[in-house]
Q: What sequence folds into this?
């Protein structure tokens, strides 16, 4: 597979140091793979193949197993994301409350495909399964921040809050 | 142990605590179908993931059906395996598996040897009611040994168990989830880009043709048909005790003579015995061991006959590359001699001489393609066929195997001793080496040839053999997971063996990835082992250094064993590799 980059030396040294500190402070790294992957995604923004291989060797879990875990959970992403990751819940409650319309509005406004990065590198839109806050349906998160009862006409306003930062 | 009283299909019975419903049902003549289930306990092989749901039964008081392979008995349990509800559920579950399976049974490599196919017949499937999307994944043909076709995978996870738990190679995992899930290497890499050892144990247990060996029979047919080519063949020790299974003979039937006749009928110009190569290996390896002991060389010395084992340590223990013997494997030693000594004797142009190996192994295919196992750009071995492929060629040629008269190997590279024969089983290589090392070190005749302490099937064994003043400490491991444990001990400086034998496959070559399928019956492998020791017993000469044709080879051509010429032709080097 030609599109697999396994060159560990291309990973950002400073970010790796941050991850190493976390792994070294973990009592049982071999049994804490998911926590380590969470941390790695927080630091790098995504989990590229060479980072998964690095973690595999550092933690002593086979790369196939690491990749199995990463590709199983929809929370983990192997693709580079924009600065702000927008997750729109497509679980049953959110869906019937109209989350699909919000998703279309988001993609149209940002002129981007699902899981891709916008041209200004600010956003990536992902649809996720139930995130357990059905009372707020339809629900959307931007980074760590949660937006409930989202409607199509609120999309522009929410996006502008993040555009202003730059 | 406490006994538990249960009822299966109105039969009352009492079984030990911890028994599964599947096991208990066999006591009352009930044959519950299984697919993912695999258990060869004496070889440490257990796959009990209950993923296929083909063995579900009704348990009184429960709404849902339960997988009998994983369900343990409890006091007062009432089981129904033959209710319409259970029968229909099993059939529906199988239909769902089949709905997503390519219907190319007629041309499939596993045709009539496929567990999914047998199950469809057993469960009386005549129509697939579920119509759905079919998978459409590329087939991985990247390696010289193993073909991986994810479209035929039923997610039984047996290959994962073999690769991860038994062999600890760690190449295969379920990747992605739901309908998209595939068993694959990390990042869906091609097999050739991973640390796969090509041991073929995934192939040995795959119930379908999702994992098979690369089929090289056409290449061999073509070589045989070319007038200008002189095609010679060699047969590994473990093939002769298993090939009969392809023709309905009992496992462990010794078919050496028939097999030689079959090869002559197929048109090979000469039929050689890899057991000769094994004797030659011992001449070199026993001397290498004595040399290392006498000259404070690296100890322990590990055997190097098994190509999956070689690949395993190159990827997993690249810092220990000086530990294994430098001896080439018997198949490549014989190939090397065929393309030099034999070619010269017969006045053959090496370019027109092809060497074919019949091996119980799929890793031997990849081994034969290693560039260092060649001389002046001519590979020592050109084609490798598994025992299974050889069986298919015999059938294709219309040869009635069971009625064949016994033939004899060509004398020149065909004579062998009992020591060469036992290379086919775990413990055999080191026993053969010990027989020769004993006489080399003491200069005395070894009276008691059989070293019982080296035999058996435990995953890791150790024994001390007194040779004169020396207490030779020997370790033996079969299965790469067991090999890993020994290697970890060596790395940690905890092991003080002189010599260690390692075979990648459970049982050694008799349980190789290229053998006729055992379909989960461990007695098949045990019977093959008993037959190997029978061959040894019945062979007039039982020490490698008493093989007259091997001695003649040294006299005529090689010079001193472990000498300069032997080194250049019969020894090799190892290459550190990455672990992925």
A:
């Amino acid at each position: 597979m030609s599109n697999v980059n396994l060159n560990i030396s291309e990973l950002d040294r400073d970010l790796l140091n941050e991850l190493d500190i976390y792994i070294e402070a973990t009592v049982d790294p071999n049994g804490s793979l998911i926590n380590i992957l969470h941390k790695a995604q927080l630091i790098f923004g995504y989990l590229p193949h060479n980072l998964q291989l690095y973690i595999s060797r550092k933690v002593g879990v086979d790369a196939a197993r690491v990749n199995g875990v990463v590709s199983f959970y929809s929370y983990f992403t192997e693709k580079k994301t924009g600065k702000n990751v927008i997750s729109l819940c497509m679980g049953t409650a959110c869906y019937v409350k109209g989350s699909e319309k919000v998703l279309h509005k988001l993609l149209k406004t940002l002129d981007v495909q699902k899981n891709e990065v916008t041209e200004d590198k600010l956003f990536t839109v992902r649809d996720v399964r139930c995130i357990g806050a059905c009372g707020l349906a339809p629900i959307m998160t931007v980074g760590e921040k949660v937006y409930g009862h989202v409607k199509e006409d609120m999309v522009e306003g929410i996006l502008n809050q993040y555009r202003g930062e730059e | 142990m406490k006994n538990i009283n249960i009822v299966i299909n109105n039969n009352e019975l009492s079984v030990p605590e911890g028994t599964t419903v599947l096991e208990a049902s066999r006591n009352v003549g009930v044959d519950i179908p299984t697919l993912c289930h695999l258990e060869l306990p004496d070889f440490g092989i257990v796959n009990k993931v209950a993923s296929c749901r083909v063995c579900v039964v009704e348990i009184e008081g429960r709404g849902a059906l339960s997988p009998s392979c994983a369900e343990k008995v409890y006091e007062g349990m009432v089981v129904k395996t033959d209710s319409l509800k259970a029968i229909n559920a099993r059939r529906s579950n199988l239909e769902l598996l089949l709905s997503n399976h390519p219907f190319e049974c007629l041309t499939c490599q596993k045709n009539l040897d496929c567990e999914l196919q047998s199950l469809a017949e057993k469960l009386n499937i005549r129509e697939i009611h579920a119509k759905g999307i079919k998978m459409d994944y590329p087939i991985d043909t990247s390696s010289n040994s193993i073909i991986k076709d994810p479209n035929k995978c039923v997610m039984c996870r047996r290959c994962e168990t073999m690769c991860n738990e038994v062999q600890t190679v760690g190449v295969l995992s379920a990747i992605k989830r739901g309908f998209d899930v595939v068993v694959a290497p990390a990042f869906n890499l091609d097999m050739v880009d991973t640390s796969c050892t090509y041991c073929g144990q995934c192939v040995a247990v795959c119930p379908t043709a999702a994992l098979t060996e690369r089929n090289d029979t056409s290449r061999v047919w073509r070589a045989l048909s070319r007038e200008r080519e002189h095609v010679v063949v060699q047969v590994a020790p473990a093939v002769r005790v298993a090939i009969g299974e392809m023709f309905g003979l009992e496992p462990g039937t010794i078919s050496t003579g028939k097999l030689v006749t079959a090869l002559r009928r197929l048109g090979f110009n000469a039929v050689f015995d890899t057991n000769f190569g094994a004797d030659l290996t011992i001449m070199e390896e026993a001397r290498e061991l004595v040399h290392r002991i006498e000259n404070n060389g690296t100890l322990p010395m590990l055997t190097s006959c098994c190509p999956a084992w070689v690949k395993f340590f190159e990827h997993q223990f690249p810092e220990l590359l000086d530990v294994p013997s430098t001896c080439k494997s018997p198949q490549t030693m014989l190939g090397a001699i065929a393309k030099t000594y034999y070619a010269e004797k017969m006045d053959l142009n090496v370019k027109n001489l092809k060497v074919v190996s019949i091996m119980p192994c799929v890793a031997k295919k990849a081994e034969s393609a290693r560039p260092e196992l060649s001389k002046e750009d001519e590979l020592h071995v050109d084609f490798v066929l598994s025992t299974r492929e050889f069986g298919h060629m015999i059938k294709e040629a219309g040869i009635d195997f069971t009625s064949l008269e016994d033939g004899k190997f060509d004398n020149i590279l065909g004579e062998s001793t009992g020591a060469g024969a036992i290379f086919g089983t775990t413990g055999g290589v080191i026993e053969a080496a010990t027989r020769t090392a004993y006489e080399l070190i003491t200069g005395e005749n070894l009276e008691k040839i059989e070293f019982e302490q080296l035999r058996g099937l435990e995953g890791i064994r150790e024994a001390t053999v007194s040779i004169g003043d020396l207490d030779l400490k020997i370790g033996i491991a079969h299965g790469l997971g067991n090999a890993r444990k020994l290697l970890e001990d060596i790395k940690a400086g905890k092991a003080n063996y002189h010599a260690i034998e390692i075979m990648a496959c459970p049982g050694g070559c008799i349980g190789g990835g290229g053998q006729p399928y055992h379909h989960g019956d461990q007695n098949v492998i045990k019977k093959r082992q008993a037959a190997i020791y029978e061959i040894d017993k019945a062979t007039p000469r039982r020490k490698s250094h008493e093989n007259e044709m091997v001695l003649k080879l040294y006299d005529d051509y090689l010079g001193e064993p472990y000498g300069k010429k032997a080194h250049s032709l019969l020894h090799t080097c190892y290459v550190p590799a990455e672990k992925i």
Q: What stands out?
A: The longest strand of chain B covers residues 470-478. Chain B has a mean pLDDT of 96. Chain B has three domains: 3-99, 135-213, 217-570.
